Amino acid sequence: EGVDLGFRFGGDEFLILINQVEERITLEIADRIRKKFLELNYKNLDLSMGIGYYKNGCSIKDLIIGVDKKVYMAKRSKKKIIE
């Protein structure tokens, strides 16, 4: 209970699992990550994030597929955004 996890999910993808948090707090966490990334001032790297919420009856696989689609949408956007 109350354990958050972060790990590398694929080549250049990372997955952060945050336990039982309101949507507002999740968005605040994502924004803090975005701001820290921008502070690093990488020249050839972009940050794209997708956010998903587990709901009863949803499989982990479906959750990850949904978030992956959001990341893809964010990558295709000209802006640095969080989906």
List the helices and strands and how they pair.
Elements: E1 5-10, E2 13-17, H1 23-40, H2 60-76
Antiparallel strand pairs: 1-2
GO molecular function: diguanylate cyclase activity
Domain GGDEF: 1-83
GO cellular component, one term: plasma membrane
Task: Give the distance, in angstroms, between the N- and C-terminal Cα atoms.
Answer: 27 Å
In percent terms, what proportion of residues is strand? 5-15%
Overall morphology: globular
Indicate the radius of gyration in whole angstroms.
13 Å
| Mean pLDDT figure | 85
Overview of this protein structure:
With 83 residues, this protein is of the alpha+beta class. The chain is 42% helix and 13% strand. The chain has one domain (5-76). The protein has a two-stranded antiparallel sheet with strand order 1-2. The chain starts with a strand and ends in a 7-residue tail after the last helix. The mean pLDDT is 85.
